[in-house]
Amino acid sequence: MPQQEGSFIDRIKLRLKAGDGGAGAVSFRHEKYVQLGGPDGGDGGKGGSVILRVNTGLNTLEKLHSQSFYHAQDGERGGKNNCTGANGADIVLEVPPGTVVFNEETGELALDMEDHPGGEAVLPKGGDGGKGNTRFATATNHAPRKATPGWPGEELTAVLEIKTVAQVGLIGLPNAGKSTLISSITGARPRVADYPFTTLQPVLGAVPLEDGGCFVIADIPGIIQGAHEGVGLGLDFLRHIERTRMLLYVIEISPHDPDQPARTLRDLQHEVRQYSEEILSRPFLIALNKVDLLDDEDELALVLDSFRAEWPGLPQDRVFVISARGKTNTETLRKKIISMYTELVRPIEKPDEPEQPFHPLNG
């Protein structure tokens, strides 16, 4: 999955102006011995439109951020001899997959590029050209001096946002090991270091399937308490889990506090819930990471006992104890992710009753 170099910018405001249509012309044929020939004023050209086009190699709006106003070309006015004015040139703005556009004035969704399979949409649209005086000739008016101006092009103050197109979203606190995990199970090569907010943009990795297809897993930058209120980086990045089909909570195991993972899960789900109750209800897995930091099995048993006591209804096949760095149990987790995703997109009929979804905050 290609990564765009440079700054990660996932929300910008732009003023978009389509071209105005050209005016129709008032013109008359000049014929010998005829003082005023018939009308021959042509129509004006159509104004250019603003076209948004998906570029799958982009994952940032950085290039569009370099200017705040984009104006498509106006159509040219009509000419004599019934010549129609040239249409104004469109302007094409390349955007990453998952881009949505809001009307800044009303707050309404104006465009979702996911709704355009061809990867191209017009917003705003150029104005039509005006009519030349040829259009207004009648049986009683052979020499009309009437023509119409071109129609103004549409104009929009737009807010562009990226909502990462990924089927599985990794959620965890800063430095929980999400980037290392996504590298382990997908081969992606994100920047990894032992300090908070190393990941300043969603990191994408592709997980192959047996049928030759694949799905995308995204490392969402770390959430902290108060993220839904704009604290830290969380508010800027919570939108990236909106398109995911399932979630993977990545939680660091602490050798000094066996109760920490249980509290962390509750904190993470609280932040997600404040942002969207619907997202919280999606299928999920839990990866208790950094088991290599524990000294022995007894320390691990304390962690698991505390976790089960805090979440007594949690199905045990949802919880994996791993070391992303040491790749301990990561292959088993990868297979579970694939199995769970496959059932989501290609449900298999089972003779038994389907498993009831588990919602920890309601449990």
Description:
- The chain starts with 10 loop residues before the first strand and ends in an 18-residue tail after the last helix.
- The strands form three sheets. The chain has a six-stranded mixed sheet, with helices on both faces. Strands 3-1-8-5-6 form a five-stranded mixed sheet, with no helix packed on it. Strands 4-2-7 form a three-stranded mixed sheet, with no helix packed on it.
- Strand 10 and strand 11 form a beta hairpin.
- It has helices at 178-186, 234-237, 260-275, 277-280, 297-310, 330-345; strands at 11-17, 50-54, 69-71, 91-95, 99-103, 109-112, 120-122, 155-162, 168-171, 203-208, 214-219, 246-252, 284-289, 319-321.
- It is rod-shaped, with a radius of gyration of 29 Å.
- It has 363 residues and is α/β, with parallel strands linked by helices.
